[in-house]
Amino acid sequence: MTERVEVTPDLQRRAAAKAQGVSDRITHALTTLKSATDSRGTPWGNDEYGEGFAKGDGTNGYEAARENLKELTGSLADHSGDHSEGQQRSAGFHADTEHGSADQFR
Asked: Per the record, which residues fall in region Disordered (predicted)?
């Protein structure tokens, strides 16, 4: 026997708003972090030690790690926003289906 599934479009819309809020907060945090780090320039200097810190062996220095973090965090914000949009569309589809079904009983 199949379990009953109940969908509440209003709750889906609220969940979508929360997911969008997550996306917005991540984007804000990333923008704030980028501004803060960009404003400091290269405080590690340009000597051998500073270059070693910034570049590492080419793929594992601070600059590469910073770019990876920005890319991953940006993707996380994008995915949260996409999830929110999907929830909003789904809520609309469910509401339309519910109204269409209810109209058949009138």
From this structure: 34-106
Measured CA distances, 64 to 9, 41, 59, 74, 82 (Å): 43, 15, 6, 15, 27
Instruction: Tell me the residue length of the chain.
Output: 106
> Structure pTM?
0.78
Q: pLDDT of 11-21, one tens digit each? A: 999 999 999 99
- 1 located within any domain: no
Matching residue, tokens 């960009």 = 38
| Tens-digit pLDDT profile for residues 41-67 | 999 998 999 999 999 988 899 999 999
Token pair in block for residue 34? 């980028």
Number of domains within the chain: 1
Q: How many CB atoms lie within 10 A of CB 10?
A: 9
Residue with tokens 């026997």: 1
88 within some domain: yes
CA-wise closest residue to 30 among 84, 80, 87:
80
Listed residue (90, 76, 65) closest to 28, CA to CA? 76
For residue 85, tell me if it sits in a domain: yes
